[in-house]
Amino acid sequence: MLTITPAIKALIEVHAVEAYPHECCGVLVGRIDAGGRVAVESARTGNLNTQRAHDRFELDPKDYMRIDRDARARGLDIIGIYHSHPDHPARPSETDLAAAWEGYSYVIVAVNQGKPGDFHSFELGEGAFRQEELRC
Questions:
Q1: CB-neighbour burial class of residue 128 (10 A; exposed 0-12, middle 13-18, buried 19+)
Q2: Within 10 Å of residue 31's Cβ, how many Cβ atoms?
Q3: Distance in angstroms (rounded) separating the CA atoms of residues 124 and 131
Q4: How far apart, in whole angstroms, are the C-alpha atoms of residue 87 and residue 23?
Q5: SS (H, E, C) the chain
Q6: What's the burial of 55, exposed, middle or buried (CB within 10 Å: 0-12/13-18/19+)?
Q7: Which pTM was predicted?
Q8: Segment 47-75, tens digit of pLDDT
């Protein structure tokens, strides 16, 4: 299960709309407790995929490392990754699966004609994604 605040959800949706018609990407910072992953903030990262930014993202590793160092200094961890799907459903693609790591929540927000749509979270296990409970 992933828990995020309504403010974090809104920040992710704003990022997705601003990036439209390209995919945006970023990370969720927080902690893991008995109830699952709990996000306390989101952080934008660059999308290094410039050739297919309309349907692919490549999270900037420099941004990831900087955010991870800052989070760890505050006793937090990167617990998830988010990205948008412009004019496409909020479900993982084969490309998303190929790049995913176990142990993270993967939030996908659909952006339909410039407006935020479905907002779902998934987790990877045994080589496949499954939708996880998302509490906002």
A1: exposed
A2: 13
A3: 9
A4: 10
A5: CEECCHHHHHHHHHHHHHHCCCCCEEEEEEEEECCEEEEEEEEEECECCCCCCCCCCCECHHHHHHHHHHHHHCCCEEEEEEEEEECCCCCCCHHHHHHCCCCCEEEEEEEECCEEEEEEEEEEECCEEEEECEEC
A6: middle
A7: 0.97
A8: 999 999 999 999 999 999 999 999 999 99
Structure-token pair, residue 79: 């617990």
Token output for 85: 């799907």
Q: Could you tell me the two tokens for 124?
A: 């990877």
Residues of the chain with pLDDT under 70: none
Q: How far apart are CA 110 and CA 119, in angstroms?
A: 7
Q: Which residues pair with 44 in a beta bridge?
A: 26
Structural domains of the chain in order of their starting residue, each with its CATH number: 2-135 (3.40.140.10)
Count CB neighbours of 65 within 10 A: 10
